[in-house]
Amino acid sequence: MSEAPAKPRIVIGSDHAGFAVKETIRKYLEAAGYPVEDQGTSSEESVDYPDYGKAVGERVASKQADLGIAVCGSGIGISIAANKVPGIRAALAHDVTTARLAREHNNANVLALGGRHQRRLDKIAAIEENVKR
Question: How far apart are CA 36 and CA 2, in angstroms?
Fold first, then answer.
């Protein structure tokens, strides 16, 4: 029996506006067995998204991570910052289809997401919780 291929190493980072979404994604990936490196931020205290887009991009470009996820309020600013790092192809995705196409057709190595949707995510979680009962 052959061994299953190793899961990709993922680096994740966000500014304060994306913090809650980053935490949700991080916990999900870790529970699924992915090795995850968190570049911050560690709270909803105001910080500058370029610092985190650059940090994620540098970890991927240096091969210390295979893929990256970067989250800010809209996903636009952090994707621009990550794309300044040579070798990074950060793509902003709004759904599963655009994320998949960015990876398959453009070989994106950093997924950028908007993070100001926690209220909506909380509503979805509440629906899921009620379904389980």
Answer: 25
